[in-house]
Predict the structure.
Amino acid sequence: MKDTRSQLISSMKELLWERGYDATSPNQVLERSGAGKGSFYHHFSGKQELAIAAMDERANELIAEFELIFHSDQHWLDKLENYLLQPRDGLKGCRIGRIAQDPSMDELLLRVPLKRYFSQLQQAIEQLLNQAKDKGELPESICAHTLSCTVISTVQGGFVMSRALYDPDCINMACQGLIDLLRTLSTLKT
Amino acid sequence: MKDTRSQLISSMKELLWERGYDATSPNQVLERSGAGKGSFYHHFSGKQELAIAAMDERANELIAEFELIFHSDQHWLDKLENYLLQPRDGLKGCRIGRIAQDPSMDELLLRVPLKRYFSQLQQAIEQLLNQAKDKGELPESICAHTLSCTVISTVQGGFVMSRALYDPDCINMACQGLIDLLRTLSTLKT
DNA sequence: GTCTATACCGAGATAGAC
DNA sequence: GTCTATCTCGGTATAGAC
């Protein structure tokens, strides 16, 4: 059991994942959380403030997840594979990237937690790739920053493609394809 | 100058690109096209039918674009680079993939043109990659179907990442990173 | 803190005149 | 074919009692 405020945030997190920001209404949040209108507008100034709180929690949660993977002491390629081949439901969408396409994301405040998550993720991946280059296991001609964009995009785009083709497996294949390229490259170098 | 019906479709295409399906209202379409409500509901049964007509046109248009690239007589890697490095506005989103995340895309009818586009694109890329394998320029261990998912996802995810970080350049880097991997791989094989 | 009542607006569509 | 008037519903929020 948690307090009303937490319930609201929790329900908003679910709905942001399922429906995004624009398509989620306060009423849906209330229904799911069991709270009343009064509580909602007592704890938050409105939909936007609640959404930001929810996205902040979600970002922290996801950052903790990838840090667990990237801070392990496996080989860099195993870490990356570990990250890329995590089980994902292609039809549901990324728990945070999901909302990036919503028109309301033009608003600066809403973008803050989103930006924070992706910045940190990119930094982590770029660092990993630079270590690989230092060890001579990735060609010097490959730019770690550029490739980190590719890695992140593959995951995010996998969700989009899965939904477009209505095939939950697309995202897993997309990630597998990238891993295959990296493994092959590392094999040929050896 | 075109007739009212075409104007409506044309405006809907723009709005679907800019705002997606759920966030686009009939009123916005009317305002942009200069048509009135009467015309709208005379030519179409409603928002959904208009959107499908618009997406159908858009799909045809985009299919023609990639066919122009893939049916040229360049080397497969040049074709792929040509496709991946096309100029794209990362902040606007894919002209058709943009709407894949909208909640309303759960409706079967709306997904038809979306699915048609992505299916054909994937088929074209897969074919290209298989030719590369036939020529021995891509390792047999690489699965063309799997890798085609990666290619498409990189583009789609590039748009998402660009919007998340609010950096129009992310998508271009993501695509460049994938090309770099493929070029490197092809170099080492030689 | 939480509830119910109320208000305002725009989405999406229909009706019937021209 | 196109126009204006009208309708219903839900999104988003405020007011004031408890």
User: Anything to note?
Assistant: Residues 108-134 of chain B form the longest helix (27 residues).
